[in-house]
Amino acid sequence: MAAAQRTVIENCSIATVDADDTEYGHGHVVIAGNRIESLGAGRAPEGLENVVRRIDASGHLVTPGLVNTHHHFYQWITRGLATDHNLFNWLVALYPTWARIDEPMVYSAAQGSLAMMARGGVTTAMDHHYVFPKDSGDLSGAIIRAARETGVRFTLARGSMDRSEKDGGLPPDFAVETLEGALAATEATVKEHHDASFDSMTQVAVAPCSPFSVSTELLREGAELARRLGVRLHTHGSETVEEEQFCKELFGMGPTDYFESTGWLGEDVWMAHCVHMNDSDIAAFARTKTGVAHCPSSNARLAAGIARVPDMLAGGVPVGLGVDGTASNESGELHTELRNALLINRLGAHREAALNARQALRLGTYGGAQVLGRSAEIGSLEPGKLADLVLWKLDTLAHASIADPVTALVFGAAAPVTASFVNGRQIVEDNRLLHVDEDAIARSTRAEAQRLARIAAQG
Ligand SMILES: [Zn+2]
């Protein structure tokens, strides 16, 4: 077998986000093949063989690649609609449009969502896709194809909905699948696309949409299916006060108790939002190691509230960050969520002690890897882990006078990405994507957004 090719990165600051938060003011990282071979203070060791590239990263901070733990790619083509609504009103306004999506729309929207995140330092993305109109094509296949082309590591959370208006749910009747249809399609997607290996680029999770759009049977049988297939579970939970009321009226209990009763707490589960959690809900997540995808911008956009992230972290709950769908976070960027998570949590009960810059960076990297079940492989810079890392340029006007690099990255303006590597392969250079054409994606997403608007207007 040929010896692995090496890339040497030198003269940079490094935030490893390892268990001790080790940082180097002037250090090096050596990538060999798709792994991190070594890193540390000073220059790289002399005499390394097969060095194909040497990067002088002066003025840069190197961090693990960002991990996005909650998104809905298809919403890229319904941005800027229902901009002054709360969650339930926003959903009711948008479902009729979303129910008209087809494969070319979903592919184009996935390209747009992925491109925006990747050029901002995301190296692992996920898509919670739950709208599968009848005869709309191979939506899961299209999403996975877009992720492969962009070059990011990817988890598809195969979503589903089977509780429509006629059953007291929010989606219109024509926008949902049957219980049996959803379970069969989810199982087929796992069997076709899930790769459980250490350096896997594609994984699949079982992901019914939310308590107010799926039946109790779909939650229960979805959990059984995921455990039979050995894959993770994802859904929305405790997002708004309206959801809490909905659960109490329909099921006689709050969302967390309802999830527990359907098999939806556990270390193989992560849930988006978790805003309205009391002490016993947080204790239940901590006890079961259920993960949380914290989506601060979306929660603000939909006036949902402030998740109790400091209390979750204090209890040992795994917490990552999420963009959420771009119909409720039009920017679609994750690196700005580091700052938003920190600022929004400081508006909550813990005030200035809520989160610091290092904790915010940890949420966006290692915390994300934990909730996706991949913390052995990614999320921190350590020898033997996969080479998913970002070079942030911090020596220009925006950041050069900020006291330290991690503070600059989190508190400062969105930092430019000089290079981003996934699995040892470079996918971004000087803020441009290397394997897909950003301008062509901008054009196609605009065309598909207009086509969807036209079809939706016809009713
Ligand atoms: Zn969501």
Structure description:
- The strands form 3 sheets. Strands 1, 2, 3, 4, 5, 14, 15, 16 and 17 form a 9-stranded mixed β-sheet that branches. Strands 6-7-8-9 form a 4-stranded parallel β-sheet.
- The protein is of the alpha/beta class and 459 residues long.
- The relative contact order is 0.16.
- The N and C termini lie far apart (59 Å).
- The mean pLDDT is 97.
- Strand 2 (23-32) and strand 3 (35-41) form a beta hairpin.
- The protein has helices at 87-98, 103-118, 139-150, 179-193, 216-229, 241-251, 255-261, 279-288, 296-301, 309-315, 335-346, 357-371, 405-411, 438-458, and strands at 6-15, 23-32, 35-41, 51-56, 60-64, 66-67, 122-129, 153-160, 202-208, 233-237, 269-273, 291-294, 319-321, 389-393, 417-422, 425-429, 432-433.
- Helix 2 runs parallel beside helix 3 (139-150).
- 36% of the residues lie in helices and 21% in strands.
- The structure holds zinc ion.
- Zinc ion (ZN) is lined by residues 70, 72, 236, 272, 324-325.
Strand runs, count: 17
Biggest β-sheet strands, sense, barrel: 9 strands, mixed
Named once each, the bound ligands are: zinc ion
Shape: globular
Report mean pLDDT, rounded to a whole number.
Answer: 97
- Can you tell me the residue ranges where pLDDT is under 50 for at least 5 consecutive residues? none
Q: How far apart are the termini?
A: 59 Å
Q: Over the alpha carbons, how many angstroms does the gyration radius reach?
A: 21 Å
Q: Report the structural category.
A: alpha/beta
How much helix is in the residues?
25-40%
Tally the helices: what do you get? 14
Report the β-strand fraction as a percent range.
Answer: 15-25%
